[in-house]
Amino acid sequence: MNLIDKLKKFVIITGHYGCGKTNLAINLAIEAASAGEKVTIVDMDLVNPYFRTSDYRPLLEKHGIDVITPVFGATNLDIPSLPASMYSIFEREGRVIVDVGGDDVGSTVLGRFRPQLMNTDYDMVYVVNRFRSMTVTAQETVEILREIEGVSNLKATKIVNNSHLMSETTDAEIHTGIEYAAEVAGLTGLEVIANTVPEKAIADGKVDPGKVDKNYVVKIYSGPGFV
Amino acid sequence: MSEKVLMKGNEALGEAALRAGCRHFFGYPITPQTELSAYLSKKMPKVGGTFLQAESEIAAINMVLGAAGSGVRAMTSSSSPGISLKSEGVSYIAGSDVPALIINVQRGGPGLGSIQPSQSDYWQATKALGHGDFQLFVLAPSTVQEMADFVALAFETAEKYRMPAMILSDGMLGQMMEPVVFPNETEIHEGDKSWAACGHKNARKHNVVNSLYIEAKDLEKTVVERYERYEKVKANEQRSESYLTEDADIVIVAFGASSRVSRSAVNAARAKGIKAGLFRPITLWPYPETELEKIVPTAKKFLVVEMNMGQMIEDVKLVVGGRKPVEFFGRTGGIIPTPGEILEAIEKM
Questions:
Q1: Domain carrying residue A197
Q2: Candidates 3.30.559.10, 3.30.530.20, 3.20.20.370, 3.40.50.970; correct CATH number of B5-236?
Q3: ipTM of the predicted structure?
Q4: Which residues on chain A are in Cβ contact (under 8 Å) with B334?
């Protein structure tokens, strides 16, 4: 399924720490670039030291994607800071995908851009994973969303269900995840625009994507990659 | 939560601490350990426990000494430079025969070093985390599941022998996410706490938790008795894992994150027809000498792989005793070796 066309040109990706925001952002960016769009991916994560969008700069640039990252992001400094170029993201042509840090702590940075965002037609995607600790129930998932919305002064507009159990994902996890995402949708009034399925789980015969409504097949880029 | 959930290693340590009955956490933030403190700051108040962000690492470790001295399960966590700051308090804990848990999510050093993963604190953990004659019980997990499983084990062993325990992790294990499962109900096996200074209520003689001895002979006697306990730890508590070592010509010895990369390298070597195996120490002190010794007669060569400049290799050489060559491959400064690099090192042997 094509997902990028269900989203406005300016996409903000939020969610619980470790729910798969960065991986989704990379998949979306590559999807858009492959469809011929001019794409900018923005690493706005100021809290997470490892597994960041900027770790994948060579891959993204190979697809012709512009990458904007915090100063000192993915280096040995604890405190990445926002570069002046961050303000250019509101004036860019084409697609802009903003990968924000996890939880309320990671989303606080969005508040700073509220004046610019007020004049931007954006989608704010809330990424959810039923198998991620602290977002196992729909209720706690909504609590985290409210915290993110509270600090960012922005409202989520769409949900992407990214429920998986890494290499142990099977049909059972995918379908449990779909039920859970529907419950989150019910509590928030937001639409679930996609249910992700890991490409490798399909290749290994563990998941039948034909049985997954609104399926969005994702490649796994983010992670340690050595095991 | 008997089903699997995805957790970062740091979060798994925090959840496991709660399930092990730890209700006293004292810490100070530092990358790449902070998710552990963040997790407990959210969860500890919900179970009526104490989460306290101290004014410094030194304050935190001395709070652990005080709390653990009263007989409760207490812990602290930090990363390399913060652990150095705690070293005085750790020595006092050992000198007071108080069980407590210290977690080190290692980063590159020395000095401020880096925030990337490292195993450069092996010597510090196993030989000299603080002044004086003493040892820590040191566990080295290699998966997020082991991060979860080793917390209760660390507390239980610490209590059994009345000594501090350390989980020596690293930034990669702390930050990476894996499926983890916790038992429905964790049984808590608390050790004898009749020594604890928790209020005698005029019902018994008062207990003293202290590391100061006025007479040298009394201090010597206490230290000697402590070392008799350490001999029991060495006899009873060695843990390790052997992978494809039975017929291996080349045996890699690696712990923690580097053992995971080494396992991939062993599989790659086997695919090329090289008989490689992996010996993984799980306890770093006591060092699993008994099981390593069993491999020495059949192995032709040993390759020690560490994320440092070569520290554990000395313990391997002590066991091998010059009978077989022991070589080293390591990366440092926050760099994780790749399976390909290790395979290359195997092929050069």
A1: 7-218
A2: 3.40.50.970
A3: 0.89
A4: 76
